[in-house]
Fold:
Amino acid sequence: MTGNEAWAGAGAGTGYVPGGPEVPQVPGGTEAGMATRRRGAQGTRLLLLEAAEALFAERGYERATVRDIAERAGVNQALLFRYFGSKKALFGEVVARGGQEQLHSTPPAELFEVALRGMLGRRGEEAGDRALETFLRSIGDSDEIATAVREMGDDYARVLATLSTADDRGLRADLALSWMLGIGLMRVVVGKQPLADADPDEVCALVTGALGTLLEDLPRSAPPPTA
Structure:
């Protein structure tokens, strides 16, 4: 068997042919499948990013395998290494993509509540932005991964520090971020009751109200209406 034949056999049924178009594995003959094939390399790369983002948030870095990421994306896992080089590089891009998008698109005064709500979600619904959930589930996995998540935390803390004029605003921002992540850890990872099922509106109102002593320019959430 030649090298090309071996590669062809490895990619059989996956939509991946060496030297040919790089397409994700999709049901043949359907309109959705044809549309996905037409996306080409950029679409395949995006599918891998989205699959990795979901799995890293659900399982953390170590337990989200390359095979599982490729399977959820519907592509041959060889494409993951072609586009990203390694699982660690893919993780770094996922963290940067989620965190930086939120940081760049959210006004500083709204960042704390937006990030907190992203972890809280709604009861019966998945969380929104999952960058910080990925952060929580991947802390301590390895030195390189810890560095990536620490850098993301530093970026959030720098923005939060702008909401205070105190001399120790850096410390205040770190304390605010630590509280946010602690809430996410107890709700999302541990599932501690009653926090795990608490209404996100109620949680945000209580937390932002209390945080006014740390970050004086942090807007307060209105308490949820009572019955």
About this structure: Residues 1-38, 122-128 have pLDDT under 50 and may be disordered. Residues 50 and 116 are 21 Å apart (CA to CA). The chain is about 65% helix and 0% strand. The two ends are 73 Å apart (CA to CA).
